[in-house]
Amino acid sequence: MSQQEDMVAQDAGHDEETSSYVAVNPTAEAAGGAPDAADGAPEGTGRAGAQRSSVADLELEGEIAADYVEGLLDVADLDGDIDMDVEGDRAVVSVVGATLDELVGRRGEVLEALQELTRLAVHQQTGNRTRMMLDVGGYRQRRRTELAEAGHDAAEEVRRTGQPKRLWPMNPFERKVVHDAVAAAGLRSESEGEEPERRVVVLPVG
User: Fold this and answer.
1) Which residue of 2, 65, 128, 137 is most buried, as measured by CB atoms within 10 A?
2) pLDDT recorded at residue 98
3) CA–CA separation, 97 vs 100, rounded Å?
4) Pick from 83, 117, 138: which residue ends a domain?
């Protein structure tokens, strides 16, 4: 495995920081959560152990990522405005103002691939791994809302039946949203399986 391939594989775990825990303080747990070794999150990727980047570093990551994405849009002859922001401990680059479904793909698969390519571009210029997030047309926010509702509904079903519930295969971003929603509902969850079939399992109390 090349260095770049290894970095992509490790970065996939960075978006899934929460798994197999109970939310004692749902707000605090949902914000950070505990690292899940099974999902490849390296030691120290949780909020308590993370080496936080400065705002200036994150803004630089955003600028590099935005330039890279702009180049991709030019090559593909696609229109779209690019917004940059910093949310918590990551840079966020969003392509807005156009219908760009081809950059999202089925279940966000194309978007995930573009995000990894953009992270590699940032890494090549800064020498540092990045948790930069790429969004297109507000897809991630819409998907986050849908997944949070799915996680809440699954938690309620498990609370009612007392039986574990296995959800459908998800990417690391999607699993993290579901883990957070389950934790906020006061239940435990974990991930099982191998990519691309890895999925969340919601567990009953006890």
Assistant:
1) 65
2) 63
3) 9
4) 138
Q: Which residues of the chain have pLDDT under 50?
A: 1-14, 17-51
Whether 194 and 163 share a structural domain: yes
Look up the domain containing 148 and give its range.
Answer: 17-39+140-203
Q: What is the residue type of 146?
A: E
- Under DSSP, the state recorded for 54 is P
Site of tokens 């990417």: 171
The Cα–Cα gap between 194 and 67 comes to 33
Q: What DSSP line would sit under 81-119, residue for residue? A: EEEEEEETTEEEEEEESS--GGGT-GGGHHHHHHHHHHH
68/35 same-domain check: no
* Alpha helices in the chain, H assignment, sequence order: 3-14, 26-31, 55-76, 109-126, 139-161, 172-184
The pTM of this model reads 0.70
